[in-house]
Design a protein that fits this description.
The protein is mainly beta. The strands form 13 sheets. The chain has a 6-stranded mixed sheet with strand order 2-8-7-6-3-4, with no helix packed on it. Strand 18 (204-207) and strand 19 (212-216) form a beta hairpin.
Length: 508
């Protein structure tokens, strides 16, 4: 491949289908710079292709000179739900990647046919945001079918993302959306799919083990007035349709949380009920209960709250519920919820509409948020970052030393996979500033192995987000990068929806 054609590499993957098998599986891999980073591969010296899968004890990879333009992975055992990633460096072979991309899962078992498998990977500069891209080279930016805020985004078993509902605000009036769409991580396209029975926003959507997505509650309209919906829906990720039966919550709620436990039950907690009642109740969805018409009541939280966070700890059964608001009160307490009871475990920085992300080692990072409630005007924003360490018995208050450079609420936060240097990182970005405007600034919180405030650093990402964005949805894709969709570029009567998605290219 000539340097002038450096957006494409054909890589042959040879896999042994059995001990006596002589056939191979060829993977035709197209490497495409993102639509807004066409110069991403300029100066690339080496290209590394990596395959990971359940049947592979260690990742299989091959690094070759970029000018050669091709390489092969020999004797890769058959594996399903594999991840394929591409890394490029402009320095010496083996140095940290400065361009990367990837996706998963993909079937490398050989069962789907003997012909070549064509795959496309969009790459971008590490530590930066790229716009979602689709199409042949040079790629073009892809857009959501509907701009929206208050939507849900759920990772499905095949690596695609289900985006549902939300609202648009036009001249101060709310338009609740029935539209749903699916983001295809391999093609980069957004495709409209089955409509919701009614428009809803600020609901929850949780992937179940059976491949269905449980959509519960949210802001809706009944009889011409705004209400907190009490309905739950099941979306089938295979057929891309909503399935019967429709389930009911015991209380309509919006701005609540939904957490999947390791035993596959889903805990719905708190939120705002119809009539602006803030709820302390929880409800539990058990997929093993046949003929379920209503969710089962769970233990009450210690205090009523909405716009809080709920994070499952590594024991798979304990949910840490933090912050939130109750009418005119901003919550400063943290509680540990289990199927048996909930108990307060500490009082820390008051905040709501903040970010919470669990690092691979089990620590939970709380960042940003608001700490005041006003009828008119803008709430005060929070800069404080705290780290909850379940192994250490509680939260490590780092408020004196750990501060975001840009205080903001309604931000996103995601824990990144551990990179090659063995360090855990959390990326936070977007949100609403103290003056009420949306921001495109993003920061990386780096956690050392020592579980205290010392050594934790907060730095700006190599480049800001592509769009001003607040109230966005985010999730970590199987390839390790972070997808950000939805949200608004401004707030108020003339809210401008963020129509383009973007991806943060995580450090490798």
């Amino acid at each position: 491949m000539l340097l002038s054609q450096k957006t494409r590499a054909i890589v042959a993957l040879a896999c042994v289908l059995s001990t006596a098998c002589s056939k191979t599986l060829d993977l035709s891999l197209t490497v495409v710079p993102a639509c807004d980073q066409q110069d991403a591969l300029d100066g690339a010296r080496f290209l590394t292709v990596r395959a990971e899968g359940a049947a592979l004890d260690t990742p299989r990879e091959q690094t070759f000179d970029f000018q050669q333009g091709s390489g092969s992975l020999q004797m890769v055992p058959p594996t399903e739900d594999a991840k394929v990633s591409v890394l490029s460096t402009k320095g010496a072979e083996g140095s940290p990647a400065d361009v990367a991309g990837g996706f998963g899962p993909i079937d490398l078992s050989g069962k789907s046919g003997e012909g070549p498998k064509s795959v496309r990977v969009v790459v971008g500069r590490v530590g930066t945001f790229i716009s979602t891209s689709e199409g042949p080279k040079p790629s073009v930016c892809s857009q959501l079918n509907k701009g929206r805020q208050g939507q849900s985004a759920t990772l499905m078993p095949n690596g695609d993302v289900f985006i549902a509902g939300g609202e648009q605000i036009v001249n101060g009036e709310r338009l609740l959306l029935r539209n749903t769409e699916v983001y295809n991580a391999q093609t980069g396209a957004f495709t409209a799919t089955a409509d919701l029975p009614e428009g809803r926003a600020y609901h929850t959507a949780t992937l179940l083990k059976n491949g269905k997505v449980l959509v519960c509650g949210g802001l809706g309209v009944l009889g011409g007035r705004a209400v907190s919906l009490a309905t739950c829906l099941l979306f089938d990720s295979q057929t891309r349709r909503f399935v019967e039966p429709t389930l009911a919550l015991n209380a309509g709620r919006q701005q609540h949380t939904a957490t999947l436990l390791d035993d596959q039950r889903v805990v719905i907690a708190g939120g705002v009920g119809t009539g602006a009642d803030f709820l302390l109740s929880t409800e539990v969805y058990d997929p093993d209960v046949e003929g379920l018409e209503k969710l089962q009541p769970g233990p009450n939280m210690v205090t009523a709250r909405a716009q809080h966070t709920a994070t499952l700890l590594n024991d798979g059964a304990t949910v840490v519920i933090a912050g939130g608001r109750d009418r005119d009160t901003v919550k400063a307490d943290v509680e540990a919820w289990t199927i048996a009871m909930s108990r307060r475990i500490g009082v820390y920085v008051p905040r709501y509409a903040h970010a919470a992300a669990k690092a691979p080692d089990g620590r939970v990072v709380f960042a940003g948020g608001f700490n005041s409630i006003v009828d008119n005007g803008n709430p005060a924003t929070v800069a404080t970052v705290e780290i909850f360490d379940p192994a250490g018995g509680g939260s490590v208050s780092c408020g004196d030393t750990l501060q975001l450079d840009t205080p903001r609420g309604s931000l996103f936060g995601e824990a990144l996979p551990i990179s090659s240097d063995g360090v855990s990182r959390v990326v936070v970005g977007g949100g609403t500033l103290i003056d009420g405007s949306a921001t495109h600034l993003a920061e990386l919180i780096t956690l050392p192995k020592a579980k205290n405030c010392t050594g934790v650093t907060i730095t700006a990402t190599a480049a800001p987000m592509k769009l001003l964005r607040t109230r966005a949805s985010s999730l970590v894709l199987p390839g390790g990068d972070v997808l950000i969709v939805g949200g608004s570029q401004s707030i108020g009567a003339l809210t401008v929806p963020a129509i383009t998605g973007e991806i943060f290219i995580s450090p490798r």
